Amino acid sequence: MSRAPDVDYSATSSRPGWDSLPPALHEAVAVALGTQLTSVSTPVSTGFTGGFAARAQLADGRRVFIKAAGEGQHAYEAYQREAEVVPQLPKAIRAPAIITTAHVDGWFAVVSEWVDGRMPGAPWTVEDFGLVTAACEQQAEVLRPSPLGGLSKFVDLVGDDVVVPAQILAGELAMPTGLQGWLPRVLPELAELVKLAPDALAGDSAAHSDLRPDNMLIDNDGTCWTLDWNWLTLGPRWVDWVGLLPIAQHQGIDTLAAIARSPLTADVPKDHLDCLVAVVAAYMIKNFEAPPPPGCTPALREHQRLHAWTFLDWLAVRRNWPTVEV
Integer distance in angstroms from the first to the last C-alpha of the chain? Predict the structure, then answer.
């Protein structure tokens, strides 16, 4: 194919309905909230897991957002980590507050405040990009140094996946199909870029580490909220924002100019920024032709392919890679 594959991020998940969850969990959530649930909406269709996630109306008039998963699901641990992390974030971070949790019969539920908003970047506009950039800059100010202890390093999150380009060059992994035809020509430089990761991606800032448009909401007042904080790590203060740039560039935003004027990146070495994008590209290349892991939807692999493609395109512009198909 000659262009990046599209992904509809408003329809990437397959989630159970509230009625299919155990009655014991229903009761535990009501007890934790101190009131009954009068209605629960259809689950949201964003994300890549099979965990329950939907808005609920309470008998006392409140609207809340409930997420729940059973043991063995990826979301089971993710929801618990989110419930642990969010209360420790600085108040300046606009993240939905955790109201309560419930744990019963191998199921965990976390209830947070409901934010009425829309996903940015669908597609990216100059206005949305400005709002999200301002939010990232504000978060960077209050998350350095990290207010949370015991965080792992961002580079450890991707782990051995950074060596994927070298493994392909060595014949240990197959060259992925369905990407740009010029990828084999630039793979040696990609392999060199990711080697910079231990230094380029070091830092003392708490990083969201999974910032995507479907992990953000812009409310009616133009405030950008950040969701799903279960991947918090230590890294550079710019890592979350730069991770958004390749998709925004693909959709017409001049992110190269934005890098030059943002206080997050104006003085960061070019190779450090490119290293992050190369690392994410390498991470996305690995396994995107395999079936999704248990509990995840096929859209996860579609997401990987789109990100691998657009991150490589972004690097091609930054590093003057020859991109003529042969």
Answer: 13
Mean pLDDT of 273-302: 91
Contact 285, 213 (CB under 8 A): no
pLDDT band (50, 70, 90) for residue 74:
confident
The tokens for 198 are 């231990």
Beta-strand pair 52-58/37-40: antiparallel
pLDDT, tens only, 297-311: 899 999 999 999 999
Selection from 30, 43, 155, 137 nearest residue 93 by Cα: 137
What the chain holds in terms of domains, given with CATH numbers, is: 18-115 (3.30.200.20), 118-319 (3.90.1200.10)
Beta bridge partners of 172: none
CA 144 to chain centroid, in Å, comes to: 20
List the structure tokens of 125.
Answer: 């506009």
Q: In this structure, which amino acid lies at residue 18?
A: W
Other C-beta atoms lying within 10 Å of the C-beta of residue 323: 15
Instruction: Report the run of H or E that residue 54 belongs to, with start and end.
Output: strand 52-58
Three-state secondary structure call for residue 276: helix
Q: Say if CB 319 and CB 311 are below 8 A apart.
A: no
What is the signed CA dihedral for 284, 138, 203, 119, rounded to 10 degrees? Answer: -10
Residues 6+ apart with CB under 8 A from 224: 94, 120, 131, 132, 134, 135, 216, 217, 218
**Per-residue pLDDT tens for 218-252?**
999 999 999 999 999 999 999 999 999 999 999 99
